[in-house]
Amino acid sequence: MIDPSNYNITVRKGWFDGEHCYEARVAELPDVAEYADSFEEAYALAIDTIEVTAEMLAAQGKAIPSPMIPADEYSGRVTLRLAKSLHRSLAQAADMEGVSLNQHLTNILNYYAGYAQGLEARNSSENTSWQLASQTEKQYKHLRLISTSEPNALEKQYA
């Protein structure tokens, strides 16, 4: 017997198919999306879907995917091999920014992870505007991606 509460369920509020509601998704079951008028109802529908899916798969002699390991189980350490020319280019860019190569790579990866989330938000018709923080800000030398629905929030944040 599975415990559906061990699965990675995310519930978010937004506009889906022209309707303002809550969407529940299960990371281990990427095709599952449940919609409801409240957070609690969306979560309960996701729990029910996990249970029903497990029963249906068991009847077919198949197993439901196991719950994913939480992110805190990862060390955060990655070993990466690069072409020498790319390594040189990245190291030079890090020097120009005044940060370590490790910090520079982390900044780049964070930027693109945020950028991908911004594209996903745009594609899901959410009313969110994404802006890149000014690279000329003295106190914020590194790339940052900011999500806001307020038009001039970036200027207010740095004022």
Largest beta-sheet details: 3 strands, antiparallel
Which outline best applies? elongated
Q: Which series of helices and strands comes N to C?
A: EEEHHHEEH
Low-pLDDT residue spans: 125-146
Kindly state the number of beta strands. 5
How much of the sequence is in beta strands?
A: 15-25%
Helical proportion, percent range: 40-55%
User: Could you state the oligomeric state of the chains shown?
Assistant: single chain
Distance between the termini: 56 Å
Mean pLDDT: 78
Largest sheet: spatial strand order? 1-2-3
Number of domains: 2
**Could you tell me the radius of gyration in angstroms?**
21 Å
Structural class by SSE content: alpha+beta
Number of helical regions: 4
Pfam families: HicB
InterPro entries: Ribbon_hlx_hlx (IPR010985), TTHA1013/TTHA0281-like (IPR035069), Uncharacterised_HicB (IPR008651)
Q: Could you explain how this protein is built, in words?
A:
InterPro entries: Ribbon_hlx_hlx, TTHA1013/TTHA0281-like, Uncharacterised_HicB. It holds the Pfam family HicB. The chain has 159 residues and is an alpha+beta fold. It is built from four helices and five strands, in the order βββαααββα. The protein has a three-stranded antiparallel β-sheet, covered by helices on one side. It has a two-stranded antiparallel ribbon with strand order 4-5. The longest helix has 23 residues. The chain starts with 8 loop residues before the first strand and ends with a helix.
